Amino acid sequence: MKLIRVGIPGAETPAVLGLAGERFDVSSITADFDASFFARGGIADLQTRWDSGELRRLPTLDPHARLGAPISRPGHLLCAGLNYADHAAESNMAIPEEPLLFTKAPNTVVGPYDDVPIPRGATKVDYEVELGVVIGSTCRYLNSPDDVWSHIAGFVLSNDLSERVFQLERGGQWLKGKSCEAFNPLGPWLVTRDEVDLAGGLDLWLDVNGERRQSGSTNSLIFPVDVLIHYISQFLVLDPGDLINTGTPPGVAMGMAEPAWVQQGDVLTLGISGLGEQRTTFTPAT
Ligand code: ZN
Hints:
Layout: E1 2-6, E2 13-17, E3 23-25, H1 35-39, H2 42-51, E4 77-81, H3 85-90, E5 100-103, E6 109-110, E7 116-117, E8 125-126, E9 129-135, E10 152-159, E11 162-163, H4 164-168, H5 175-178, E12 184-185, E13 190-192, E14 203-208, E15 211-217, H6 225-232, E16 243-245, E17 267-272, E18 276-283
Parallel strand pairs: 4-16, 6-12, 7-18
Antiparallel strand pairs: 1-2, 1-13, 2-3, 4-5, 8-11, 9-10, 9-16, 10-13, 14-15, 14-17, 17-18
This protein binds zinc ion.
Zinc ion binds next to loops.
Protein backbone atom coordinates (compact mmCIF):
# COMPACT_ATOMS: atom_id res chain seq x y z
CA MET A 1 0.00 0.00 0.00
CA LYS A 2 0.88 3.62 -0.46
CA LEU A 3 -0.16 5.87 2.44
CA ILE A 4 -0.68 9.59 1.85
CA ARG A 5 -1.94 12.58 3.81
CA VAL A 6 -4.12 15.14 2.04
CA GLY A 7 -5.04 18.70 2.94
CA ILE A 8 -3.73 21.94 4.36
CA PRO A 9 -0.62 21.94 6.57
CA GLY A 10 -1.38 20.73 10.06
CA ALA A 11 -4.84 19.42 9.17
CA GLU A 12 -4.13 16.61 6.71
CA THR A 13 -6.48 13.66 6.25
CA PRO A 14 -4.97 10.16 6.10
CA ALA A 15 -5.67 8.26 2.90
CA VAL A 16 -4.59 5.22 0.91
CA LEU A 17 -3.61 5.68 -2.72
CA GLY A 18 -5.64 3.52 -5.10
CA LEU A 19 -4.29 1.80 -8.19
CA ALA A 20 -5.81 4.48 -10.43
CA GLY A 21 -4.64 7.34 -8.22
CA GLU A 22 -7.78 7.51 -6.11
CA ARG A 23 -7.30 8.90 -2.61
CA PHE A 24 -9.38 6.69 -0.30
CA ASP A 25 -10.18 8.60 2.89
CA VAL A 26 -9.31 6.37 5.87
CA SER A 27 -10.05 8.97 8.56
CA SER A 28 -12.96 6.78 9.71
CA ILE A 29 -10.34 4.13 10.59
CA THR A 30 -7.48 6.24 11.97
CA ALA A 31 -7.17 9.92 12.86
CA ASP A 32 -3.67 10.10 11.41
CA PHE A 33 -0.57 8.12 10.41
CA ASP A 34 1.11 8.83 13.72
CA ALA A 35 2.89 6.95 16.50
CA SER A 36 -0.29 5.41 17.89
CA PHE A 37 -1.38 4.23 14.42
CA PHE A 38 1.89 2.39 13.84
CA ALA A 39 2.10 1.11 17.44
CA ARG A 40 -1.30 -0.57 17.31
CA GLY A 41 -0.55 -2.41 14.07
CA GLY A 42 -2.42 0.05 11.92
CA ILE A 43 -0.71 -0.98 8.68
CA ALA A 44 -1.68 -4.63 9.09
CA ASP A 45 -5.24 -3.55 9.83
CA LEU A 46 -5.38 -1.34 6.72
CA GLN A 47 -3.89 -4.16 4.63
CA THR A 48 -6.66 -6.52 5.77
CA ARG A 49 -9.27 -3.92 4.88
CA TRP A 50 -7.58 -3.28 1.53
CA ASP A 51 -7.47 -6.97 0.68
CA SER A 52 -11.17 -7.35 1.49
CA GLY A 53 -12.09 -4.42 -0.76
CA GLU A 54 -13.36 -2.35 2.16
CA LEU A 55 -11.01 0.58 1.54
CA ARG A 56 -12.10 0.87 -2.09
CA ARG A 57 -15.66 1.55 -0.94
CA LEU A 58 -14.62 4.54 1.17
CA PRO A 59 -15.16 8.14 0.00
CA THR A 60 -12.34 9.64 -2.03
CA LEU A 61 -10.56 12.95 -1.47
CA ASP A 62 -9.93 15.75 -3.99
CA PRO A 63 -7.22 14.46 -6.36
CA HIS A 64 -5.81 17.98 -6.72
CA ALA A 65 -5.61 18.85 -3.03
CA ARG A 66 -2.18 19.35 -1.47
CA LEU A 67 -0.25 16.28 -0.34
CA GLY A 68 1.37 16.66 3.05
CA ALA A 69 4.19 14.51 4.35
CA PRO A 70 2.86 10.92 4.46
CA ILE A 71 3.40 10.63 8.23
CA SER A 72 2.61 13.02 11.03
CA ARG A 73 5.48 14.77 12.78
CA PRO A 74 7.97 12.09 13.92
CA GLY A 75 9.30 11.91 17.48
CA HIS A 76 12.86 11.32 16.34
CA LEU A 77 14.23 12.52 13.02
CA LEU A 78 17.66 10.90 12.80
CA CYS A 79 20.08 10.96 9.90
CA ALA A 80 23.10 8.92 8.89
CA GLY A 81 25.94 11.12 7.66
CA LEU A 82 28.51 10.11 5.04
CA ASN A 83 26.83 6.77 4.36
CA TYR A 84 27.91 6.57 0.69
CA ALA A 85 31.66 6.26 0.14
CA ASP A 86 31.70 8.55 -2.90
CA HIS A 87 29.77 11.25 -1.01
CA ALA A 88 32.27 11.06 1.86
CA ALA A 89 35.06 11.52 -0.67
CA GLU A 90 33.45 14.56 -2.32
CA SER A 91 32.95 16.06 1.15
CA ASN A 92 36.66 15.61 1.92
CA MET A 93 35.71 13.53 4.93
CA ALA A 94 36.86 10.05 5.91
CA ILE A 95 34.56 7.07 5.50
CA PRO A 96 33.18 6.54 9.01
CA GLU A 97 34.18 3.36 10.82
CA GLU A 98 30.81 3.33 12.57
CA PRO A 99 27.56 4.99 11.48
CA LEU A 100 27.71 8.76 11.98
CA LEU A 101 24.42 10.00 13.39
CA PHE A 102 22.90 13.42 13.71
CA THR A 103 19.46 14.84 14.31
CA LYS A 104 17.20 17.27 12.54
CA ALA A 105 14.35 19.06 14.25
CA PRO A 106 11.21 16.97 13.60
CA ASN A 107 9.26 20.07 12.58
CA THR A 108 11.40 20.34 9.42
CA VAL A 109 9.16 17.71 7.80
CA VAL A 110 6.92 19.23 5.10
CA GLY A 111 5.04 17.99 2.05
CA PRO A 112 6.66 16.77 -1.18
CA TYR A 113 5.61 19.78 -3.26
CA ASP A 114 5.72 22.51 -0.61
CA ASP A 115 7.82 25.63 -1.19
CA VAL A 116 10.88 26.02 1.05
CA PRO A 117 12.07 29.47 2.17
CA ILE A 118 15.76 30.26 1.94
CA PRO A 119 16.71 30.78 5.62
CA ARG A 120 17.60 34.29 6.75
CA GLY A 121 21.31 34.87 6.25
CA ALA A 122 21.80 31.65 4.29
CA THR A 123 24.44 31.54 1.57
CA LYS A 124 25.14 27.82 1.11
CA VAL A 125 21.85 25.93 0.83
CA ASP A 126 22.35 22.35 -0.34
CA TYR A 127 20.23 19.27 -1.09
CA GLU A 128 20.52 15.55 -0.25
CA VAL A 129 18.17 12.97 -1.79
CA GLU A 130 17.82 10.07 0.65
CA LEU A 131 15.96 6.87 1.35
CA GLY A 132 13.86 7.47 4.47
CA VAL A 133 12.82 4.63 6.77
CA VAL A 134 9.71 4.90 8.94
CA ILE A 135 9.77 2.86 12.13
CA GLY A 136 6.72 0.65 12.73
CA SER A 137 7.39 -0.69 16.22
CA THR A 138 9.77 0.04 19.08
CA CYS A 139 13.44 -0.72 18.37
CA ARG A 140 15.37 -1.28 21.59
CA TYR A 141 18.62 -3.29 21.73
CA LEU A 142 17.70 -5.33 18.66
CA ASN A 143 19.62 -8.61 18.63
CA SER A 144 20.78 -8.56 15.03
CA PRO A 145 20.29 -6.76 11.71
CA ASP A 146 17.95 -9.59 10.69
CA ASP A 147 15.55 -8.45 13.42
CA VAL A 148 15.21 -4.98 11.92
CA TRP A 149 12.83 -5.72 9.04
CA SER A 150 9.80 -6.55 11.18
CA HIS A 151 10.18 -3.16 12.92
CA ILE A 152 9.96 -1.15 9.68
CA ALA A 153 6.62 0.34 8.62
CA GLY A 154 7.81 1.41 5.20
CA PHE A 155 10.00 3.60 3.06
CA VAL A 156 9.75 7.16 1.85
CA LEU A 157 11.53 9.68 -0.37
CA SER A 158 13.29 12.28 1.77
CA ASN A 159 15.33 15.42 1.07
CA ASP A 160 17.78 16.27 3.86
CA LEU A 161 18.26 19.97 3.08
CA SER A 162 21.29 21.67 4.61
CA GLU A 163 22.84 25.09 5.06
CA ARG A 164 26.57 24.39 4.96
CA VAL A 165 27.74 27.55 6.73
CA PHE A 166 25.35 26.94 9.62
CA GLN A 167 26.30 23.23 9.61
CA LEU A 168 30.07 23.42 9.33
CA GLU A 169 31.35 26.96 9.89
CA ARG A 170 29.34 28.23 12.86
CA GLY A 171 30.62 25.82 15.54
CA GLY A 172 29.04 23.01 17.45
CA GLN A 173 27.00 20.18 16.01
CA TRP A 174 25.46 19.85 12.54
CA LEU A 175 22.00 20.55 13.95
CA LYS A 176 22.01 24.27 13.09
CA GLY A 177 22.50 23.67 9.39
CA LYS A 178 20.04 20.81 9.21
CA SER A 179 16.99 22.09 11.09
CA CYS A 180 16.00 25.26 9.25
CA GLU A 181 12.32 25.79 8.55
CA ALA A 182 10.85 23.25 6.08
CA PHE A 183 14.26 21.60 5.54
CA ASN A 184 12.93 18.04 5.17
CA PRO A 185 10.45 17.62 2.30
CA LEU A 186 8.99 14.11 2.65
CA GLY A 187 6.88 11.90 0.41
CA PRO A 188 4.75 11.79 -1.70
CA TRP A 189 3.96 8.34 -0.28
CA LEU A 190 4.89 6.01 2.51
CA VAL A 191 5.30 2.70 0.66
CA THR A 192 4.73 -0.17 3.03
CA ARG A 193 7.62 -2.56 3.67
CA ASP A 194 6.06 -5.47 1.78
CA GLU A 195 6.08 -3.48 -1.48
CA VAL A 196 9.74 -2.42 -1.43
CA ASP A 197 12.51 -4.79 -2.52
CA LEU A 198 15.81 -3.35 -1.34
CA ALA A 199 17.79 -6.39 -2.47
CA GLY A 200 18.27 -5.07 -5.99
CA GLY A 201 18.95 -1.52 -4.82
CA LEU A 202 16.75 1.52 -5.35
CA ASP A 203 17.89 4.25 -7.73
CA LEU A 204 18.04 7.80 -6.33
CA TRP A 205 18.30 10.99 -8.39
CA LEU A 206 18.03 14.74 -7.97
CA ASP A 207 17.91 17.57 -10.52
CA VAL A 208 18.34 21.31 -9.99
CA ASN A 209 16.39 23.31 -12.60
CA GLY A 210 16.38 20.20 -14.79
CA GLU A 211 20.12 19.54 -14.54
CA ARG A 212 21.05 16.15 -13.08
CA ARG A 213 23.16 16.63 -9.95
CA GLN A 214 22.78 13.44 -7.92
CA SER A 215 22.37 9.84 -8.96
CA GLY A 216 23.11 6.67 -7.09
CA SER A 217 21.77 3.41 -5.74
CA THR A 218 20.97 2.26 -2.24
CA ASN A 219 23.22 -0.70 -3.11
CA SER A 220 26.12 1.67 -2.38
CA LEU A 221 25.15 2.36 1.24
CA ILE A 222 28.14 1.76 3.53
CA PHE A 223 25.80 0.82 6.38
CA PRO A 224 22.62 -0.60 4.83
CA VAL A 225 19.20 -0.18 6.39
CA ASP A 226 19.27 -3.30 8.56
CA VAL A 227 22.80 -2.67 9.86
CA LEU A 228 22.07 1.00 10.49
CA ILE A 229 18.87 0.54 12.49
CA HIS A 230 20.27 -2.37 14.49
CA TYR A 231 23.21 -0.08 15.33
CA ILE A 232 21.03 2.87 16.33
CA SER A 233 18.93 0.65 18.61
CA GLN A 234 22.03 -0.06 20.72
CA PHE A 235 22.19 3.63 21.68
CA LEU A 236 18.64 4.89 21.84
CA VAL A 237 15.07 3.69 21.63
CA LEU A 238 13.36 4.21 18.30
CA ASP A 239 9.61 4.68 18.57
CA PRO A 240 6.83 3.94 16.10
CA GLY A 241 6.52 6.74 13.55
CA ASP A 242 10.16 7.83 13.85
CA LEU A 243 11.99 8.73 10.63
CA ILE A 244 15.55 7.75 9.71
CA ASN A 245 17.27 9.40 6.73
CA THR A 246 19.87 6.90 5.55
CA GLY A 247 22.37 9.20 3.83
CA THR A 248 22.92 10.72 0.41
CA PRO A 249 24.79 9.64 -2.74
CA PRO A 250 27.34 11.97 -4.39
CA GLY A 251 26.50 15.13 -6.30
CA VAL A 252 25.67 17.64 -3.59
CA ALA A 253 26.63 21.27 -4.23
CA MET A 254 29.26 21.09 -1.48
CA GLY A 255 31.13 18.50 -3.55
CA MET A 256 31.34 20.61 -6.72
CA ALA A 257 34.58 22.33 -7.73
CA GLU A 258 32.57 25.56 -7.86
CA PRO A 259 29.56 24.86 -5.66
CA ALA A 260 26.25 25.93 -7.19
CA TRP A 261 24.33 26.54 -3.98
CA VAL A 262 20.54 26.59 -4.12
CA GLN A 263 19.13 30.06 -4.77
CA GLN A 264 15.66 31.51 -4.47
CA GLY A 265 13.61 30.52 -7.51
CA ASP A 266 15.50 27.27 -8.02
CA VAL A 267 13.40 24.14 -8.49
CA LEU A 268 14.53 20.76 -7.21
CA THR A 269 13.03 17.60 -8.65
CA LEU A 270 14.05 14.30 -7.11
CA GLY A 271 12.96 10.73 -6.83
CA ILE A 272 13.65 7.17 -5.79
CA SER A 273 12.52 4.21 -7.86
CA GLY A 274 9.16 3.00 -6.55
CA LEU A 275 8.88 5.80 -3.96
CA GLY A 276 7.69 8.65 -6.20
CA GLU A 277 8.99 12.12 -6.91
CA GLN A 278 9.17 15.53 -5.23
CA ARG A 279 9.24 19.05 -6.59
CA THR A 280 10.51 21.86 -4.35
CA THR A 281 10.65 25.55 -5.21
CA PHE A 282 12.79 27.87 -3.06
CA THR A 283 11.26 31.16 -2.03
CA PRO A 284 12.94 34.29 -0.64
CA ALA A 285 13.91 34.53 3.00
CA THR A 286 11.10 36.10 4.99
ZN1 ZN B 1 21.79 13.63 4.76
